[in-house]
Amino acid sequence: MEVYTVGSKSFTAVAINTAAKAGEWIKLKLGAHAMLDVKSSAQDLVTEVDRGSESLIRNLIRTHFPTHAFLGEEGVGAGANASVQALKEVSGAEYLWIVDPIDGTTNFVHGFPFFSVSIALAHKGEVIVGVIYDPFHDELFVAEKGKGAYLKGKRMQVSGDAKLSDSLIATGFPAGTTSTLPVNMKGLQALAPKVRNTRVIGSAALHLAYVAAGRLSGFWEIGLNSWDIAAGALLVREAGGEVTDTLGRPYSLPVRHVLATNGRIHRELQLELAAADATGYE
Ligand code: IPD
Ligand code: CA
Ligand code: CA
Protein backbone atom coordinates (compact mmCIF):
# COMPACT_ATOMS: atom_id res chain seq x y z
CA MET A 1 0.00 0.00 0.00
CA GLU A 2 1.36 3.39 -0.93
CA VAL A 3 1.80 5.87 1.92
CA TYR A 4 -0.02 9.17 1.49
CA THR A 5 2.17 12.26 1.91
CA VAL A 6 0.97 15.85 2.03
CA GLY A 7 2.33 17.84 -0.89
CA SER A 8 4.37 21.07 -1.00
CA LYS A 9 5.71 21.29 2.51
CA SER A 10 8.98 22.75 3.68
CA PHE A 11 10.94 21.06 6.44
CA THR A 12 11.30 24.36 8.28
CA ALA A 13 7.60 25.23 8.05
CA VAL A 14 6.69 21.86 9.51
CA ALA A 15 9.24 22.26 12.32
CA ILE A 16 7.92 25.75 13.14
CA ASN A 17 4.25 24.78 13.10
CA THR A 18 4.89 21.67 15.13
CA ALA A 19 6.97 23.45 17.77
CA ALA A 20 4.38 26.22 18.01
CA LYS A 21 1.53 23.79 18.43
CA ALA A 22 3.33 21.70 21.05
CA GLY A 23 4.45 24.86 22.87
CA GLU A 24 0.94 26.30 23.06
CA TRP A 25 -0.34 23.05 24.50
CA ILE A 26 2.47 22.88 27.07
CA LYS A 27 1.71 26.44 28.17
CA LEU A 28 -1.92 25.52 28.76
CA LYS A 29 -0.74 22.73 31.03
CA LEU A 30 1.61 24.93 33.07
CA GLY A 31 0.75 24.44 36.75
CA ALA A 32 -1.75 21.75 35.79
CA HIS A 33 0.24 18.59 35.17
CA ALA A 34 -1.46 15.55 36.67
CA MET A 35 1.40 13.11 36.97
CA LEU A 36 5.06 13.40 38.03
CA ASP A 37 7.41 10.46 37.54
CA VAL A 38 11.14 10.05 37.95
CA LYS A 39 13.42 8.41 35.38
CA SER A 40 17.15 7.73 35.97
CA SER A 41 17.24 9.49 39.37
CA ALA A 42 15.14 11.59 41.73
CA GLN A 43 16.23 14.68 39.75
CA ASP A 44 15.27 13.27 36.37
CA LEU A 45 11.60 14.23 36.02
CA VAL A 46 8.91 13.44 33.49
CA THR A 47 5.23 14.38 33.36
CA GLU A 48 2.35 13.35 31.16
CA VAL A 49 2.85 16.70 29.41
CA ASP A 50 6.36 15.70 28.25
CA ARG A 51 4.90 12.49 26.83
CA GLY A 52 1.87 14.21 25.32
CA SER A 53 4.02 16.88 23.69
CA GLU A 54 6.27 14.23 22.17
CA SER A 55 3.39 12.23 20.71
CA LEU A 56 1.81 15.38 19.28
CA ILE A 57 5.14 16.26 17.64
CA ARG A 58 5.79 12.71 16.41
CA ASN A 59 2.32 12.42 14.91
CA LEU A 60 2.52 15.74 13.11
CA ILE A 61 5.97 15.04 11.70
CA ARG A 62 4.93 11.56 10.65
CA THR A 63 1.90 12.94 8.87
CA HIS A 64 4.14 15.14 6.74
CA PHE A 65 7.18 12.91 6.43
CA PRO A 66 6.24 9.28 7.06
CA THR A 67 9.56 7.93 5.82
CA HIS A 68 11.75 10.07 8.09
CA ALA A 69 13.33 8.66 11.26
CA PHE A 70 12.42 10.13 14.64
CA LEU A 71 14.39 10.33 17.88
CA GLY A 72 12.54 11.83 20.84
CA GLU A 73 13.63 11.87 24.47
CA GLU A 74 10.50 10.19 25.79
CA GLY A 75 10.83 7.28 23.37
CA VAL A 76 14.22 6.40 24.84
CA GLY A 77 15.03 4.60 28.09
CA ALA A 78 16.51 6.58 30.98
CA GLY A 79 20.24 7.24 31.37
CA ALA A 80 23.23 8.09 29.21
CA ASN A 81 23.82 4.59 27.79
CA ALA A 82 20.28 4.29 26.47
CA SER A 83 20.57 7.73 24.83
CA VAL A 84 23.86 6.90 23.16
CA GLN A 85 22.47 3.59 21.91
CA ALA A 86 19.22 5.15 20.64
CA LEU A 87 21.15 7.69 18.58
CA LYS A 88 23.35 4.96 17.12
CA GLU A 89 20.29 3.00 16.03
CA VAL A 90 18.96 5.87 13.89
CA SER A 91 22.27 7.33 12.79
CA GLY A 92 22.08 5.75 9.34
CA ALA A 93 18.78 7.47 8.52
CA GLU A 94 18.81 9.90 5.63
CA TYR A 95 16.43 12.27 7.41
CA LEU A 96 16.27 12.22 11.20
CA TRP A 97 14.12 14.42 13.44
CA ILE A 98 15.60 14.95 16.90
CA VAL A 99 13.14 16.20 19.47
CA ASP A 100 13.06 17.33 23.07
CA PRO A 101 9.33 17.74 23.78
CA ILE A 102 9.99 19.88 26.89
CA ASP A 103 13.51 21.04 27.59
CA GLY A 104 13.44 22.29 31.16
CA THR A 105 10.95 19.88 32.71
CA THR A 106 12.09 20.78 36.24
CA ASN A 107 11.28 24.43 35.50
CA PHE A 108 7.94 23.41 34.01
CA VAL A 109 7.06 21.39 37.12
CA HIS A 110 7.97 24.28 39.44
CA GLY A 111 6.34 26.99 37.34
CA PHE A 112 9.73 28.63 36.70
CA PRO A 113 8.98 30.13 33.30
CA PHE A 114 11.94 28.93 31.24
CA PHE A 115 11.29 25.83 29.17
CA SER A 116 11.15 25.10 25.49
CA VAL A 117 10.35 22.71 22.69
CA SER A 118 13.40 21.76 20.64
CA ILE A 119 13.08 20.28 17.14
CA ALA A 120 15.97 19.57 14.79
CA LEU A 121 16.13 17.87 11.42
CA ALA A 122 19.38 16.20 10.40
CA HIS A 123 20.18 15.14 6.85
CA LYS A 124 22.80 12.38 6.72
CA GLY A 125 23.92 13.28 10.23
CA GLU A 126 24.11 17.03 9.71
CA VAL A 127 21.56 19.36 11.26
CA ILE A 128 19.82 21.38 8.54
CA VAL A 129 16.86 22.83 10.47
CA GLY A 130 16.71 23.89 14.11
CA VAL A 131 13.68 25.34 15.89
CA ILE A 132 13.39 26.18 19.57
CA TYR A 133 10.14 27.57 20.93
CA ASP A 134 9.71 29.17 24.34
CA PRO A 135 5.92 29.32 24.73
CA PHE A 136 5.90 31.36 27.94
CA HIS A 137 7.75 34.28 26.36
CA ASP A 138 6.41 33.46 22.91
CA GLU A 139 9.88 33.37 21.39
CA LEU A 140 10.46 31.14 18.39
CA PHE A 141 14.08 30.73 17.33
CA VAL A 142 14.60 29.34 13.82
CA ALA A 143 17.70 28.37 11.86
CA GLU A 144 18.19 26.82 8.46
CA LYS A 145 21.60 25.63 7.38
CA GLY A 146 23.25 28.30 5.24
CA LYS A 147 20.34 30.73 5.62
CA GLY A 148 20.91 32.27 9.04
CA ALA A 149 19.11 32.22 12.37
CA TYR A 150 16.04 34.31 13.13
CA LEU A 151 13.87 35.46 16.03
CA LYS A 152 10.54 37.09 15.16
CA GLY A 153 11.70 37.62 11.61
CA LYS A 154 14.92 39.39 12.62
CA ARG A 155 18.29 37.89 11.86
CA MET A 156 20.17 36.92 15.02
CA GLN A 157 23.81 37.68 15.61
CA VAL A 158 26.02 36.38 18.42
CA SER A 159 27.47 38.89 20.89
CA GLY A 160 30.67 40.79 20.18
CA ASP A 161 32.36 40.16 23.54
CA ALA A 162 36.01 39.41 22.93
CA LYS A 163 37.10 38.42 26.42
CA LEU A 164 35.78 36.11 29.10
CA SER A 165 35.97 38.96 31.58
CA ASP A 166 33.31 40.86 29.58
CA SER A 167 31.08 37.81 29.06
CA LEU A 168 27.87 36.47 30.54
CA ILE A 169 28.16 32.68 30.49
CA ALA A 170 25.74 29.84 31.23
CA THR A 171 25.95 26.22 32.22
CA GLY A 172 23.56 23.57 33.49
CA PHE A 173 23.28 20.65 35.83
CA PRO A 174 22.02 17.40 34.31
CA ALA A 175 20.26 14.82 36.45
CA GLY A 176 23.32 12.65 37.27
CA THR A 177 24.49 13.78 40.72
CA THR A 178 27.57 11.56 40.90
CA SER A 179 28.89 11.59 37.34
CA THR A 180 28.31 14.94 35.66
CA LEU A 181 27.54 17.24 38.60
CA PRO A 182 31.07 17.31 40.06
CA VAL A 183 32.55 18.09 36.63
CA ASN A 184 30.09 20.91 35.89
CA MET A 185 30.71 22.29 39.41
CA LYS A 186 34.46 22.25 38.82
CA GLY A 187 34.00 24.23 35.61
CA LEU A 188 31.71 26.70 37.33
CA GLN A 189 34.12 27.16 40.23
CA ALA A 190 36.96 27.89 37.83
CA LEU A 191 35.03 30.17 35.48
CA ALA A 192 32.85 32.18 37.85
CA PRO A 193 35.67 34.51 38.96
CA LYS A 194 36.88 34.98 35.38
CA VAL A 195 33.65 35.98 33.64
CA ARG A 196 31.35 38.95 34.17
CA ASN A 197 28.75 36.59 35.61
CA THR A 198 27.16 33.16 35.19
CA ARG A 199 23.56 32.03 34.67
CA VAL A 200 21.86 28.65 35.01
CA ILE A 201 18.29 28.93 33.74
CA GLY A 202 17.57 25.22 33.39
CA SER A 203 17.02 24.68 29.68
CA ALA A 204 20.06 23.77 27.60
CA ALA A 205 18.12 24.51 24.41
CA LEU A 206 17.26 28.02 25.62
CA HIS A 207 20.86 28.62 26.69
CA LEU A 208 21.93 27.80 23.14
CA ALA A 209 19.19 29.98 21.65
CA TYR A 210 20.36 32.83 23.90
CA VAL A 211 23.95 32.42 22.70
CA ALA A 212 22.60 32.72 19.15
CA ALA A 213 20.60 35.80 20.13
CA GLY A 214 23.67 37.47 21.69
CA ARG A 215 22.14 37.41 25.19
CA LEU A 216 24.84 35.05 26.43
CA SER A 217 28.38 34.92 25.06
CA GLY A 218 28.95 31.29 25.93
CA PHE A 219 27.43 28.10 27.26
CA TRP A 220 28.95 24.81 28.23
CA GLU A 221 27.53 21.71 29.84
CA ILE A 222 28.79 18.21 30.48
CA GLY A 223 26.42 15.27 30.05
CA LEU A 224 23.74 16.45 27.62
CA ASN A 225 21.87 14.37 25.05
CA SER A 226 21.53 14.87 21.32
CA TRP A 227 17.99 16.28 21.68
CA ASP A 228 19.19 18.99 24.10
CA ILE A 229 21.78 20.30 21.64
CA ALA A 230 20.91 19.59 17.98
CA ALA A 231 18.57 22.49 17.20
CA GLY A 232 20.50 24.98 19.33
CA ALA A 233 23.82 24.07 17.76
CA LEU A 234 22.53 25.11 14.34
CA LEU A 235 21.08 28.33 15.78
CA VAL A 236 24.45 29.29 17.25
CA ARG A 237 26.36 28.50 14.08
CA GLU A 238 23.92 30.29 11.83
CA ALA A 239 24.12 33.33 14.11
CA GLY A 240 27.88 33.43 13.57
CA GLY A 241 29.00 31.51 16.67
CA GLU A 242 31.01 28.37 17.24
CA VAL A 243 29.95 24.97 18.57
CA THR A 244 32.35 22.20 19.57
CA ASP A 245 32.73 19.61 22.25
CA THR A 246 34.53 20.73 25.40
CA LEU A 247 37.84 19.63 23.87
CA GLY A 248 37.29 21.97 20.95
CA ARG A 249 36.46 19.29 18.36
CA PRO A 250 33.71 20.09 15.83
CA TYR A 251 30.13 19.47 16.94
CA SER A 252 28.35 16.37 15.69
CA LEU A 253 25.16 14.67 16.87
CA PRO A 254 26.83 12.29 19.39
CA VAL A 255 28.51 15.17 21.31
CA ARG A 256 27.38 15.17 24.95
CA HIS A 257 29.84 17.68 26.46
CA VAL A 258 29.15 20.86 24.55
CA LEU A 259 30.78 24.27 24.27
CA ALA A 260 28.93 26.97 22.31
CA THR A 261 30.09 30.56 22.14
CA ASN A 262 30.14 33.72 20.07
CA GLY A 263 33.40 32.36 18.59
CA ARG A 264 35.57 35.15 19.97
CA ILE A 265 35.81 33.70 23.50
CA HIS A 266 35.73 30.08 22.38
CA ARG A 267 39.40 29.27 22.78
CA GLU A 268 39.72 31.10 26.10
CA LEU A 269 36.71 29.28 27.55
CA GLN A 270 37.89 25.92 26.23
CA LEU A 271 41.34 26.41 27.74
CA GLU A 272 39.85 27.33 31.12
CA LEU A 273 37.72 24.18 31.14
CA ALA A 274 40.73 22.09 30.21
CA ALA A 275 42.90 23.74 32.88
CA ALA A 276 40.20 23.05 35.48
CA ASP A 277 39.97 19.41 34.37
CA ALA A 278 36.30 20.10 33.65
CA THR A 279 35.85 18.97 30.04
CA GLY A 280 34.13 15.72 31.03
CA TYR A 281 36.70 13.77 28.99
CA GLU A 282 39.39 11.61 30.62
C1 IPD B 1 17.56 19.26 30.93
C2 IPD B 1 17.71 20.75 30.77
C3 IPD B 1 18.70 21.29 31.77
C4 IPD B 1 20.02 20.63 31.64
C5 IPD B 1 19.89 19.14 31.72
C6 IPD B 1 18.87 18.62 30.72
P1 IPD B 1 15.18 18.11 30.35
O1 IPD B 1 16.66 18.73 29.98
O2 IPD B 1 18.18 21.08 29.50
O3 IPD B 1 18.91 22.66 31.59
O4 IPD B 1 20.88 21.09 32.64
O5 IPD B 1 21.14 18.61 31.42
O6 IPD B 1 18.74 17.24 30.87
O7 IPD B 1 15.41 16.90 31.16
O8 IPD B 1 14.45 19.17 31.07
O9 IPD B 1 14.65 17.82 29.00
CA1 CA C 1 16.43 18.28 27.61
CA1 CA D 1 12.97 16.92 27.97
Topology (SSEs and partners):
Elements: H1 11-28, E1 36-38, E2 45-47, H2 48-64, E3 69-72, H3 80-90, E4 95-103, H4 105-110, E5 116-123, E6 126-134, E7 139-144, E8 148-151, E9 154-155, E10 168-170, H5 180-191, E11 197-199, H6 204-212, E12 218-221, H7 226-238, E13 242-245, E14 258-261, H8 266-275
Parallel strand pairs: 3-4, 10-11, 10-12
Antiparallel strand pairs: 1-2, 4-5, 5-6, 6-7, 7-8, 8-9, 12-14, 13-14
Helix pairs in contact: 1-2, 6-7
The chain binds D-MYO-inositol-1-phosphate and calcium ion (2 copies).
Task: State the main characteristics.
34% helix, Fructose-1,6-Bisphosphatase, Chain A, domain 1, five-stranded mixed beta sheet, 14 strands, alpha+beta, binds D-MYO-inositol-1-phosphate, D-Maltodextrin-Binding Protein, domain 2, 282 residues, binds calcium ion, globular
Molecular structure report:
With about 280 residues, the protein is an alpha+beta fold. Helices cover about 35% and strands about 25% of the residues. It contains eight helices and 14 strands. The protein has a seven-stranded mixed beta sheet with strand order 3-4-5-6-7-8-9, with helices on both faces. Strand 5 (about 115-125) and strand 6 (about 125-135) form a beta hairpin. Helix 1 runs antiparallel to helix 2. The termini are far apart. The mean pLDDT is about 95. The protein binds D-MYO-inositol-1-phosphate (IPD) and calcium ion (2 copies).
